[in-house]
Amino acid sequence: MKRKSNTLAMIRNAGRISLLTLACLAGVDSSLYGQNQNVATYQNPVIPGDIPDPTVIRVGKMYYAAGTTSDFAPNYPIYESTDLVNWKQIGSIFNEQPSWTSDSFWAPELCYHNRTFYVYYTAKRKGDRVSCIGVATTNDLRKGFTDRGIIIEWGNEAIDGFVFQDDDQKRYISWKAYGLSKERPIEILASELSDDGLSLVGKHFSLTRFDQGWKGAGDEGQCLVKHGEYYYMLYSVGGCCDNRCDYRVMVSRSKNLKTGWEQLPEPILQGSEVWKCTGHGTLVTTPDNRYFYLYHSYNATDFEYIGRQGLLDELVWDKTTGWPRFKNGNTPSVSAEMPFHNTQQVRDSVYFDNFLTDKNRLLWQWDLKNPKPEISIRKGLLSLATNQDGLAFTGISPKTGSYSFEAELAGQVAQSGIGIYGNSKNLLAFMAGHSKLILFQIKKGTKEILAEIPIPEIASISLKLKALHGRIYQFYYTTDQKNWIPVKMQNDYSVDGNFLPQWGVAMRTGIIVDGKAGDSGAFSSVKMSYKY
Questions:
Q1: What percent of the chain has pLDDT over 90?
Q2: Same domain membership, residue 306 and residue 369
């Protein structure tokens, strides 16, 4: 009874069971959602998993999106879609980290100009670790971007770049500026861009001012659009990035880009019982001139354990007042009409890789604050090797909080296994090696052994974890690929991973090795299955 009561208590603390826990990863077992008589609908999120601060653009009939990766590399995954609902990752903005950066890769902003793709992105600078905005370009998104250096350094910090093109074809970049002075601690500033998009032109100007009675705090995540005779700016206020957040979207407008902005007093988008702390999005138009807002929000059950997920809602305009509003109300849609006819949302319940090709390698990430692990895929095996003494990890972002992840080990020099990774000082790992299984956690840098199980030297073993709401974990192993044996710790079969999420960053789940520099482990398959 003690094991059962402890587990149930942790589940209750993890939150209420959500009506919406969905996954979207390359894999098998696809199913169709949103068939409602003659009207097809989709369910949010449209980009499940951890994708804060999403940016979206349309080039021809194709849409492209990217989002914050913080301290996971490769930096900024790129997605494409033909319908704004079904998205596929096609690469990353940076395959190699820009030389001036240290960490904290936030808020990419994609643009397309003169047949060139641009990204304006935030990262901390080496040395002083001040957040600056850099710019990079490419002609082929699948090949990644070439960095062009810092374009904005301002006050104590500059983040959240956004580019807007006016009717006269002049382009402007706006950003959130910290620490201008004691009287002006935070503002959203803007400046004209040069034609090549690589430098600022003329004098900057302000789009928000606290000393003029603006309601809210921490204005950021802005996007601008011209509609009729007004310029409109959607932006977010409040706390963004943990379970105490109160993020919401405000809107202001002016007939003059550089002055005279008025704010609508109440938020036009805020959290609900299902989706919490909505904000930091980008507007994109369809060919028939409809407006859709791609933004992030926490699922109320899975919250920071899975991260800020990518949601989509349509923006419409009030013919009487001229102000915008969201078509389905001022909270995120749980479901909504598909943006395009003759399309349906597709979800995949299982991601499986037996490493016969490296087509899924772009899904895997690692901690950029550690030496990059050596990852190679050949003849049905993935080899993961350390570049320093200690742990090496690579993983993917889970798309719902309730899932299972398993890996088949194919031999190892070092201890090898599976894990859930917040950062190098906060992780859970279940590993095989040296005639034993070991389950341990590292919490705030301190390692604790949770269970040890002696096993014979065998040719093959598979390890599995089950997650509930991204927080409660159970671990299993099998030596015959049929019977999964649960791992019992001192008093329970479950581990509470409440210590794993870092501020603003969700965890990754994947494979891990532990040994001396150069030691490696081999994996013949991985499988992640989601519970809807």
A1: 81
A2: no
